Predict the 3D structure of the following.
Amino acid sequence: MSESVTHIAVAGNIGVGKTTLTQMLARHYNWEPHFEALDDNPYISDFYDDMHRWSFNMQMYFLNSRFNSILEVQKGQSSVIQDRTIYEDAYIFAPNLHGMGLMSTRDYNTYKSLFESIKNLIKPPDLLIYLRSTIPSLVSQIQKRGRQYEDSIRLDYLKRLNERYEAWISNYKEGKLLIIDKDDIDFENKPEDFGQIINKVEAVLNGLF
């Protein structure tokens, strides 16, 4: 494992398995995991009930939370793996809410301005792992984990997020990138599939491709 690598991030749509993969890689490599603070988020239930009313509050909460998390990563001495990135908030979730008419232009411009200021103070991850999945698989996984506040997620919301993820990843140039097609692999239940991911992670981190 390359000693210079300190920040790994796992990106992907709602329900794709980011937290599970983050936990598994953290255990395997003894990396320090950083997770989304969903249970502590005071807006998340209200947001899924009324996206138009709470979208700006929700995105501002995530922006602040992830900015603080990145500052911790940059100050630390150990390798960290992060569940979701600040870039996903700025390039996918916030513009998606604005595009769907669920966030006003005034609020969106305020959000974008603050993100641009923050962007100048942070570094991108050394490696971004993108979990790709189809909508049916995402819906199945969301239903399986049974989070009450996710019951009201709209299908068109998930579809639009997926489209924005693909557009973002196709133009991602911030650092090393590893794309994993989640529909073709079951890393949670099949050790051989997780082994494939380990091999790919090590190959990318060591610059083999």
